[in-house]
Amino acid sequence: MASKINFPKIKPFNNKSQVTIFIILGLIIVVIVILFFLLRAPPTVRTFNEDEPQAYIESCTREAVEKAINLTSTHGGDIEPKGFINYLSQDITYLCYQNKFYDPCINQRPLLIEHLEKEITNYISPIVERCFNELKRNFEKRYNVEMESQMQLTTDLQSKNINIKINRDFKATRGEISQDFKKFEMNLKSPLYNFAEIAMEIVNQETHFCNFDVIGYMFLHPEYDVIKFITGDSDIIYVITERSTDQKFNFAVRGCVMPPSF
Amino acid sequence: MKPYLTKKASISYLQIFLLLLASFSIPYLIYSNTQTIQAQPLQGEVCCEETIQGNSCQNTQSTNCNPDLKITPTTCETTDFCEIGCCISPENGLCNKRTSKRDCEIEGGLFESEALCQVNQCELGCCILGSETKWTTEKNCEFEGNSQNNDIPTEWLLDAEHNSEIKCKFSAEKQNQGACTYDSNDEKRCAYETLEECVSRTGSQSNFFQDTLCSNSELGTVCKAKDHQACLENEEDIYWFDSCNNKEDVAEDCNILQGTYCQEDDSGKPSCEDINCNNIGRKHGESWCEYDGRIGDGKDPVGSRHEKHICYMGSERIEPCADYRNEICVQDNSAIDSGTFSQASCRANQWRNCLNINQESGKEKITSACEKNPDCRVKSINMGGSFAFTVCVPGYPPGFDLINNEANNVLNDDGTINEQAYNTISPGAGICSMATKRCTTTWMVGLFCPGCIDNCKCHTDYFTEEMNDFCTSLGDCGGSINYVGEYTDSGYSVKSSGGGSPGKVAGDTSNTFSGTPAKPGNFEFYETLNPELLRKAGGENSSSTLSAFDQELMQVAGAYGSPLLLKMLQEGDENESKWVSGVSAGGMGEVNYARYTGGFSSALSSAISAQITPYDAKEPQDFSMIAAMIAGMIAFIITASIMATMLASMLAFLLFMPCIIVTYNIDFTCSSWEPPNHGGKCSECNKLDSTCSEYKCESLGELCQFINKGTDHELCVDIPENKEYPIIQPLESVITEGYEYKNIDENGFEVVDSLTNDCIDAYKTVRFGIKVAPFARCRLGTEPSQKYDEMADLFGPKGNVLLPVHRMDLFFPSPDAFKNQYNLTEESIERLGKLEYFVKCKTASGKINPETYKIKTCINPGPDLTAPVINPLTTPSNNAPLKYNTTQQTIQIYTNEPSECKWDTREKEFTQMENQFNCQTDLTKYTLFGLPCNTTLTDLQNNTKFYFKCKDQPWWKGTENESKRNIMQEGFEYNFLVSKDPLIIEEFLPREGQVITEGFEPVSTTMKLTTSGGVEKGQAICSYKLNQFSMVDLIETNDTVHTQEFQSLMKGYYKIEFICEDIAGNKANQTTTFKIQIDNTGPKIVRVYYESGLKVITAESAECKYDFKRNFIFDNATSMYTTNELEHFGEWELKNYYIQCQDQYKNKGPKLKVKGYEMF
Q1: Looking at the domain assignment, is residue A13 inside a domain?
Q2: CA distance B1130 to B1118
Q3: Are B346 and B364 part of one and the same domain?
Q4: Residue A83 domain-assigned?
Q5: DSSP letter (8 states) at residue B736
Q6: B1043-1065 pLDDT, tens digit each
Q7: Of B258 and A212, which is predicted with more confidence?
Q8: Most buried residue, A135, B54, B325, B599, by most Cβ within 10 Å?
Q9: A65 lies in some domain
Q10: Which of residues 640-659 of B touch A (CB under 8 A)?
Q11: Is A159 near chain B, with CB under 8 Å?
C-alpha cells in the first residue's frame, strides 16, 4: 500500500497581513534611504557671506590650488603625468629622460616653474569658474548680478609662496546698493617654487655629471631633505622634503643607464 | 518600344552607371592607396619628437613614436626641432641644461645652442637678498628681489669674495645688522635687522644702531634682553631672543658638522640634539658601503648589489647603487679629530675599461694599465708551458640578465626562428665565451721518453680552478655562488681529448665580506676617465702639475661622497675660504661609456692568443665551437690509432723505438652562470635589510619571479614547478636547403643530403636544430652514457639559455684528408665519417630527458670532386689601402679545405702562376675562417692587382693521383688601394702661441684640424693629447675637417699634440701651444668730472650706466653715451650718482659713488 504524505497546509495571506508586510517593507525602504543620506560623505558646506565674495572665492580657489599642489608634487610636476614611471603605485614624471644606454638624459620639463604655473592654472580654472557661478547664483537671490564672461586667472610661483590673481568684473546691485569687484587675489604658503628650483638643479647636474650628490646638497641646504633611490631598472627616484612642513615633491630621472653586459 | 527602353536610353543608363561607379571607385582607390602609403613605418632608429609614452626627443624605433608628431629618420641631434641646448627662462632667469629646442619653445623659454648653459645669462653668482643669499643667475636674483619684496635690497655679486656657493652662503652672515628703533603705541620698540630694512621701515638711517642689540639699555626700548631661547629656521645654534622676539646672541653652540643641531621639543624648549646615528656608531653626514657578501678580486656573487648607506640627521638611509653591479660602492675613511669619518659613493664600475685594456699590445702594457685601474685586476694563467697568458679582467664582475624575456619571442608563429630575438638574448654569454680556451698539451711518448713536455698542468684540477676563476671574473659566468651563497657549476665545462681530463672542482662557497670596501681610485685613474673635468677641478692651477691639495681633493671629487663635506670636517667651517676652489659637489664625471662598448671580445681573444705560443705550432689558435668539437674527435681517433701503432711498435722494437710526439686538447668552455634549479629560496629577496630587484630575485633560482614591479608590493615569489621532462623534436624550419631529417622518432633523427638521401658532403656547412618543450638548455655529447653535466659542448650558441628551440651548424672536413695526413686505417676513416651526437636538455625545474636523444649523420667519404674555395675574408681585406711608399705587403687568405695556393699579377693557369702561398694543411689547425695561407705580395709600386688560385688535396702532389686534384677555374681577384701622397695636417686651431681671452671660467673653445693627402684625399681619424693626459679621438673626426669642443678649460697654458691617421696607416702629427686667459675684473673708472655734463673715463672699453640708488640692477640703470667706449657721458644733476661699468665679457666694475655739486 502506497504511503500518503500529508503536506502541511499553508494558510493564504489575508488582507491585514498584506498591509502589514507592505508597511514593514515601506519602513525598511525609508530607513535605507535615510541611512544612505546620513552615511554619505557630508556635502561641502562653504560658508557664504554676501559681504565678502572675495573670501568666498579665495576659499574656493584655495581648495583647488591645494589639490593641484598635491597632484603636481606627487606626480613630478604634472597634473596628469606624461612620460612617467610607475613607482610604488604612483605615476611619477621623468623630468629628465634618455631611452638610450650610456647617454645622459635630456631635460623633459625645462622652465619647470612656468610649467607648474600652467598646470595649476589649467587645473583650477574650471573649478574657479564653478565657484564664480555658485557665487553668482547666491547673489542673484537678492541682487542683480553682472559678471564678466571671461576670467583672467594667473598663477605666480614665488619662493615659499603661490600667488593667484583673478581678474573678473563682478557687479551686484540692489536698488542703490552696489558691490563691484574686479580683482580677486590670494596667497598660499607653499614650497612648490623652491621644490621646482631644487628639481631643476638636480636635473642640471644629472644631465651634466650623470649624478647628483645628495649629502653635499643637504649640508648646504639643511632645510630640505633629498632622498635618491635607484630602482633595479636604473631609474632614479628623487623625493624632496621641506623639513619644516614635511611637504614632498617626487620626480624621476633616467639617464646614463648602463645595460647588463653590453 | 517604350522610350526608356530605346538604344539611346540604354546608353544613357550605361553612362549614368559608369559615372556612379567612377564616383565611388576613384575616391576609394585614392583612399586605399593613401592608406597604404600612410601605413609604411620608417625602418630602424628614428628621432621621435615625442614617444608614445610621452618622452620628448628620443632616438628610438619608429613604432615607439607618437604618430601625430614629427618623426625623422635621423638622430635627434641633427634635427632642428630636437636640437639640444640651454633653455633660459625669460621670467625668472633660471637655466636648464641639455634641453630640446622643442620643449624650450613650448614652455616659452629662450633657447641657446650651448647645451651646458655656459653662456653669460647662466653665469652663477651670489645673490644677496637682504639678510639672505642665494647662488643663482643675475636675472633670477632680480626676479627673487622683485617677487619677495620690492623694498628688499638686492645685489648680485661675483667678485673674489662671492665666487662660490660656500662663500656666498657665509657672506650672508657678514651683512651688517643692528637695532632699528621705532615708536609704536607710544612705546619705543625695536627690530634687529639690516640698515636697508631699517630705512625701509622707518625712513631714516638715524634709527639704525649697527651691531647693537635691541635690548641694549642705552636705546631705551621696551625689549628685555635674553627673554627666551629658541631655534632659528635653518640655523644650527640655539639663540637668545629678547622680549620683542628679536634674535640675540647664541645661547648654545650646536654644530651640525659635529653632529648636533638645534631642535625644539613639543613644549618649544630648544636643545642641541645629537643627530649622529649612535645606534650604529656612525656620525651625522657619514656614508659607507654595505655589500651582500664578498666583493672584489672577481668574486662578487651573482645577484649581489652594492649599497651606499648614509647617516643624516640621526637616521640611516640606503641608496642602492645601480643594479647588475654597473655601479660599485667605493669608500674612503678620513681621520678627523673625533676619530674617523667615512665617505662613500656609488660610481660607475669601470669593468668595460678592464676588458678594453687588453687591446694594448704586450703583457707589460696590459699589466701596467690594469694595475692603475682600481676596478680591474691582472689575471695570469700559466699551465707550465706555452699555455700562459696575462689578461686584465674586472675586479667587480658585472651582472647579466639571468632570465631572458625574449625567450618567448624566439619562435615565430610559422615555426621559423625570430632571428632578432634569438640574437639579442643572453648578451652576457658573449662575454663569458672570452674565457673559452683550449690548452694543447704535448707528450713525447716512448719507453725512455719524458712524457708530458708542454702545458702539463692542463690535465689537472688546477687548470679548471684557474680557468673558472678567469671565467667568473668576466661577469655572471662559470661556476659561482649567488648572493645567498648557493653554488652552481653548470656555467662551465671542461673536456680532454685524452691523457687525463681535469674534473670539475668544488667551488668556493664562502660569501663573507672581507671588511675592505672598494677603492675610489686615485688621480691617475680619474685622469683616464675624463681629463677635461679633472682640469676643471684642478682650479686655477693650470700647469701640468697639480698641487698636493688638488690631488688630494681629486681623490674624492667627482668620485664619491661630498668632497665639500670632507673638507669642511678637515678644515673646520671657519677656514672655508681657504679651500673653496669651486669644485662641484656633483660627482661622477662625464664618461663617454659608449666608446668602451665595442670590440672587447675580439680584443681579449686576440690578446690571449698573441700570448700563447704552442709548442708545435705558430699559427693562431682561433677555432669555432664546431671546429673544436670535430678537432677533438679527430684527435681522439688519431690518438687511438697512434697509440695502437705505438704499442705494436714497442713490442716489436722495444729500445730502438724513437719517441712519438702526441698532443691532447683540453677545452674549457665558459658560459653564463646558471641559477639553481629550484625556487625554494626566492623569499630571501624579500627580507627587509636589503633592496630586492628583478636581478637579485632571479639569481635565487630558475623558478623565482619578481612580481608587482613598480608597486609597493614588489615580491620575489616561487613560480609553479613544471615537472614535465623535456621532449625533443627536430626543428624543420632551420635545416639548410638541400638537406633533411630522416628516421625521425622520439629518440632522435638523422641529417642527410636530400638528393642522395645519404651522407652530407665534406666542407659544407649544414644548419639543423631541435624544438624542446618545456623550454630547456641543451648540451651535446659524443658518448651515449654521458650525463648532462658531463657534456662539455652546448647545443649551438644559445645552448645554455632556456629556449624553446636550439640550432647549430655542422661543418666537416673530408675524412679522406685525415687518411693521408695521419696514415689512418680504413676502419678509422669509416668511424671518422660516421658521426653520432647525443643530446640532453634540462628544464628550469631541473628535469633532464631520461633517454638520450641521438642525432646521426655521416660525411661523404669521397672522392672529392669540388675545387677549394677562398674565403672572401682576407687579412688585409680586399681593396685594402696601402701606406705611402709601401713596396710589399704580407697577406693571409683562408681556404675551406687543405690546399696548395699560388698567386700572380695576371689571371693565368694554376701551373703557370709563379708565386706560392705557404698554406696550413693540418686539419687540427682549422680556424673559424678556414685553413690559413700566407704570402708576401711584392712590387706594389707598379702593381696593385693580384690573382690567387688553389688546388686541393695537396697530399697527392706529385703522385699518380695528381690528376684527381681539383683546381679553381677562376682566380680570386685581390686589389690594393695605394696612397699617392703622404697625409698632411694643413692647418689647426688654436694656432701656435694663440691667446684666448674670455670673461669667466670655464672657457669653451673649439679645436679644429684640416687634413689632406693620404689614401682618401685627407680623410683620416685624428686624436689629441691635452697636456699630460691620454690620447683620445676628437669628437668630430674621420673626415678632412676634424673638430673637438672643449667646454671646461680653465685659465693657463695648454699644449695639444695631434696625431692623424688614415685607413692606410699614413700618419701626420702636429703640436700647438696656446694660452687661456680670463678677464674677470670689471673696467676701472679712472676719472670722473664735469664736462658739459657728467663725464667718465674708463681704463678699458666698457659700457657704463648710472643710477641714483646704490642697489640698482645694471640692466635697469641709465646708460651713458659713448663714442669710443673709453669716454662716457651722462646728464648732469646735483645728486649722488652710483656709476658702474661693464666690459665686453660682462664683468662689472665696482659701483662708484659720485656727488654732483655746484662751485660758486
Answers
A1: no
A2: 9
A3: no
A4: no
A5: P
A6: 988 877 778 888 899 999 998 88
A7: A212
A8: B325
A9: yes
A10: none
A11: yes
Count how many Cα atoms sit within 13 Å of the Cα of residue B1150 in the half-sphere of its side chain.
7
- CATH code: domain of residue B772: 2.60.40
* A148 located within any domain: yes
Residue B866 lies in a domain: no
Do the Cβ atoms of B1100 and B1080 come closer than 8 Å?
A: no
- Where does a domain end: B91, B122, B153? B122
Count of domains for chain A: 1
Do residues B974 and B985 share a domain? Answer: no
> A218, A231 in Cβ contact below 8 A?
no
pLDDT at B765: 80
Full-model pTM: 0.73
Report the gap between the CA of A167 and the closest CA in chain B (Å).
20
SS3 B251: strand
Q: Name every chain B residue with its beta carbon within 8 A of the beta carbon of A260.
A: 324, 326, 398-401, 427-428, 695
Lookup result for grid cell 641633427: B78
Give me the domain span that covers residue B487: 354-506+598-670
Contact status of A246 with chain B (Cβ, < 8 Å)? no
**Do both B501 and B626 map to the same domain?**
yes
Cis peptide before B676 (omega within 30 of 0): no
> Which stretches of B674-812 are DSSP H helices?
694-699
CB contact under 8 A, A84 and B54: yes
Alpha helices (runs of H) in B300-451, residue ranges in sequence order: 351-357, 363-372, 419-424, 427-432
A 36-95 residues with CB < 8 A to B:
81-89, 94
Residue A251, SS3 per DSSP: strand
Note whether residue B270 is domain-resident.
Answer: yes
Q: Could you list the beta-strand ranges (E) of B675-747.
A: 704-707, 715-718, 727-730, 739-745
Q: How many domains does chain B fold into?
A: 11
Q: DSSP label at B67?
A: T
| Contact indicator for B833, B814 with CB cutoff of 8 Å | no
Tens-digit pLDDT profile for residues B809-819: 877 777 777 67
For chain B, how many helices (H) and strands (E)? Answer: 20, 64
Of the candidates B458, B464, B465, B463, the residue with the CA atom closest to the CA atom of residue B499: B458
- In B, which residues are within 8 Å of A104 by CB distance? 98, 590
| B109 interfaces chain A, CB cutoff of 8 Å | yes
Cβ distance of A260 and B401 shorter than 8 Å? yes
Question: For residues B400 and B303, what is the distance between their CA atoms, to the nearest angstrom?
Answer: 9
Looking at B1009, B1044, B1078, the residue that finishes a domain is B1078
Nearest to A107 among B96, B597, B706 (CB): B96
More confident call, A251 vs B80: A251
Among candidates B1077, B1022, B1037, which has minimal Cα distance to B1054?
B1077
Residue B25 lies in a domain: yes
Instruction: Give me the pLDDT at residue B724, please.
Output: 92
Whether B303 contacts B271, CB under 8 Å: no
The segments of chain B whose pLDDT lies below 70 read 1-5, 22-44, 148-153, 172-176, 427, 523-658, 679, 818, 820-824, 924, 928, 1028, 1030, 1158-1160
Q: What is the pLDDT of residues A83-142, one digit of tens each?
A: 999 988 889 999 999 998 888 899 999 999 999 999 999 999 999 999 999 988 888 888
Range of the domain at A143: 53-76+112-190
Residues in A touching B273 (Cβ below 8 Å)? none
Output the pLDDT for position B636: 47
Asked whether residue B763 falls in the same domain as residue B845, the answer is yes
Residues B462 and B602 reside in one and the same domain: yes
Residue B175: per-residue pLDDT: 57
Residue B1157 in grid coordinates: 655739486
Assembly ipTM = 0.83
Cα separation, B1060 vs B729, whole angstroms: 57
DSSP state of B852: P
The per-residue pLDDT for B149 is 61
Tell me: the pLDDT tens digits for B1031-1042?
Answer: 778 888 989 999
DSSP annotation of B544 reads: S
